[in-house]
Task: structure prediction
Amino acid sequence: MNAAQVWGEQLRAVQRAIASYPASAGMLETRARERLPLLESMAAAAGATPTATTPSLQTALEAERLALQTHVAAVGLLEDRASRELLATLIAAAAEAVSALRLELDEPAIVDAFPGQRNRP
Result:
């Protein structure tokens, strides 16, 4: 897998997350959209913007968790400093989104030892 493919995958993960937010999400969706410019310049193979079948806070939470997992996995694929710095920014933003969405859903902000990894039933 080359860098363009990795960045394309990162961009699609964030696009999926954005498409999953309901109209009522307000600032949560705005923060997710702020990540797009960070990725658009890096992704050569972005593809079409995916759409969620049923936007909701729960769907957005699932999409943000997937984005977080995708960003964490990319750290092992890209070794240059600039890529790792951008991935660190994306990981922090996705983790913040997961926590904020969990609070909106009246769930504890973080219950997993490793955010982005489901380690409990």
